[in-house]
Predict the structure.
Amino acid sequence: MVYNSKTYLPIDRIEMQWRKERPDFDLNIQKFLLQIYLYRAGHLVDAHFKRMCIGQFGIRSQDMRLLFALRRHGAPFSMRPTALYQSLLVTSGAITKEVNRLEKLKLVRRVFDPARRRGFLVQLTDHGLVTADRAATMVSQNQSMDTPLAALTNDQRALTLQFCVQIINAFQEFTPTP
């Protein structure tokens, strides 16, 4: 589901509601609001990405992420399904469905894996490579974001990127591996 800005409860009301309902929380020091705001920011960024993927390319955002994973892997733009689902933090079943969808659209193909007898690799087609490159260019130039991120200065973007990397690393260190 894609939301517009009017769908969301204004951010200041969330804090106000918590202050009213739980005055014992020190919301400025607690990690409570930070987690809510990080989730909300991720959700909003994802909603913009979904709109770009559907509107510009006619595919789902998770399918575009698979194309991006193959593209950033480098030539010959192929990976094992296991490496894909580990890279994208999804299940093996989700990767199978995405590969099937993208194969029908001629964006990827299954090719024999020379390192494994029965294995195969998922590989970008020429059309998949062009699609991934066009989408990556749109995202990198903030064309896909309808200017919300473009409104940030270069310094603000750099600080935000640094903060996001710190948060991701902290969670990855904290989260036990399955």
